[in-house]
Amino acid sequence: MNDTAILRPPAGFLAERRAFLSGVGKATLSASAVALIVGCESLAQGTSTAASDAAILNAALGLEHEGITAYQLGAESGLLQKPVLDVAVMFKNHHEEHREILIGAIRKLGGTPVAPKSKDEYARALNAASLKSQTDVLRLAARLERGAANAYIGVMPSFGERALAQVAARLVADETMHWTVLSQALGDKLPVKALAFGA
Q1: Whole-model pTM?
Q2: Which of 52, 148, 186, 187 has the fewest CB atoms within 10 Å of its CB?
Q3: pLDDT: is 59 or 161 the higher one?
Q4: Structural domain boundaries of the chain?
């Protein structure tokens, strides 16, 4: 099956809105790893406060900024066929919704949302110059979606505010849905064993 057929969304799918997050990352990140990334050593040691919850959410927001830019770079590359481009733009829109939800939550916790880097910085970090085909773009997106899902799973137990774990779970669902669509478009095999994420 070709990737344009798989990526064609079902009727009414484009009208649906996703409530929560998605992003980037190359591997599973533990809560401590995310805490250290954002420079919050007390969180890495297991404390649970509004400040540490905000720090976790800011790390997630950083992933969302990167994911949005990755889809933007893919859309602007000229490498995506029309049905694939439409889905890439839809996934980018999901990530933008995630971004707004995270910004709101961070502010409610008294934190300051992390600002995005420049598009050029993301392009270098993602090695966008190496993207030469639609498959390359989809492979990058699939890797980032899986990494984001794993990152969210890794931090869920660390939230002091339990409702934030539900937010993270909803974000994981979006990221996993994105990864599944992209993987099928690439012709990749689905995981044979259960519990394929978060390990």
Answers
A1: 0.76
A2: 187
A3: 59
A4: 42-186
